[in-house]
Write a structure and sequence with these properties.
297 residues, alpha/beta, seven-stranded mixed beta sheet, two-stranded antiparallel ribbon, transmembrane helix, cell membrane
Length: 297
């Protein structure tokens, strides 16, 4: 029954999106996201705790509230764009996306390096792998399956355009190894809370946080380049994907030190991107839960 409810809700929302002119969509989503912001006390509190941990008193409360509201709006517009991108042509997709520092990825591909792209739940993160695959070639991503199997199938149908392959996050390491052996680009989201037995403790916004070591472990083993890539927008119509300098993971006799250094660099570039435009990040996730669980109660 829950599957039927979710799918029905999805298709009703999809119908709504297609009948509303684009020029009205942002206006309507601002109203809807503002309403959800007011009634969704749980995630509003999570975002508030995150901003307090990240910025302390260096940001006024008014600015924090503005960022939280924008996070809700960004999530809504991401869903709108996700639906509109179903079945989109390569040409139409690349018309609304530009690339900055694309020579970084092109050079790595030219040198036939094994490539691990890392990003965060930042901007229109669902559009990022779609655009990279459309322009640069086959890509494999890793994600958690949705609780609704039917919605998970719908999600992956959209994600798998332009030769994108999706792996279930649970027990994905063996599959990720095979991806790199097959010389496909591997894409990972690295900004989620990680369990104590899986994550490495690093600094993020001046606070300890558990960070996934998967990219570092694979990069060290296969001499792969870790290339950070983030997507941003000013108007939610045109988007820019920016590639950053590759993170080289050393391979010395001290494996733990090598992996820690690589993971810390990943956390650092993610923080730098968020600090430049904090309203682009998904603040509604309990990022610091392992270390500050009591703050989220």
């Amino acid at each position: 029954m829950r599957d039927i409810f979710y799918v029905t809700l999805f298709y009703l929302f999809k119908f709504f999106i297609w009948i509303v002119p684009d020029k009205w969509m942002i206006f309507l989503m601002k109203g809807l996201s503002s309403l959800i912001y007011k009634i969704d006390k749980k995630h509003r509190k999570i975002a508030q705790v995150n901003l307090d941990l990240a910025y302390g008193d260096t940001l006024p409360q008014e600015e924090k509230e503005k960022i939280i509201k924008e996070a809700y709006l960004n999530l809504g517009l991401l869903l709108v764009d996700f639906i509109k991108n179903q079945g989109i042509s390569r040409e139409a997709l690349l018309k609304k996306v530009s690339f900055k520092n694309e020579e970084i990825l092109q050079q790595a591909l030219k040198e036939k390096r094994k490539i691990i792209l890392i990003t965060a739940h930042y901007g229109n993160w669902e559009l990022l792998p779609l655009s990279i695959a459309a322009k640069f070639g086959p890509l494999t991503g890793v994600g958690r399956k949705l609780d609704s199997p039917a919605m998970d199938r719908i999600l992956n149908q959209n994600r798998q355009q332009f030769d994108i392959e999706m792996l279930d996050k649970k027990g994905a390491m063996k599959s990720m190894i095979q991806v790199l052996k097959n010389d496909r680009m591997l894409g990972l989201l690295v900004d989620q809370n990680t369990s104590e037995n899986e994550g490495i403790l690093v600094d993020f916004f001046g606070k300890p946080v558990r960070h996934t070591p998967s990219a570092a472990i694979l990069a060290r083993r296969f001499d792969a380049l870790i290339i950070p890539a983030f997507i941003s927008t000013e108007d939610h119509q045109k988007y820019q994907i920016t590639f950053y300098a590759p993170i080289v993971t050393e391979k010395t006799e001290d494996k733990d030190k090598d992996i820690f250094a690589s993971v810390q660099k990943q956390a650092k570039i993610t923080e730098e991107v968020i600090r430049k435009k904090p309203d682009g990040w998904f603040w509604l996730h309990q990022r610091w839960k392992n270390q500050f669980e009591e703050r989220y109660q």
